[in-house]
Amino acid sequence: MGLRTNTNFLNAYIELDKVCCEQFGISRGGVTEYINRLLEMRYAPDRAEILPKLVNYRNMRNRIAHDEGA
Fold this sequence. Notes:
Blueprint: H1 3-24, H2 30-40, H3 47-66
């Protein structure tokens, strides 16, 4: 990914994380909280489609934010 793509992705992820934080009434880790809640639910519509995408987005964000040269 190029620098612009990384920046655009990170900005979108930050916005998603903020929305999740507001939804769940927490200050940090909104996407992770959403993932954890989906895993705990007995039934969640579209979980099979949403969960792998969220996990992938979180992993991508972590690689970009923490891996040298990402």
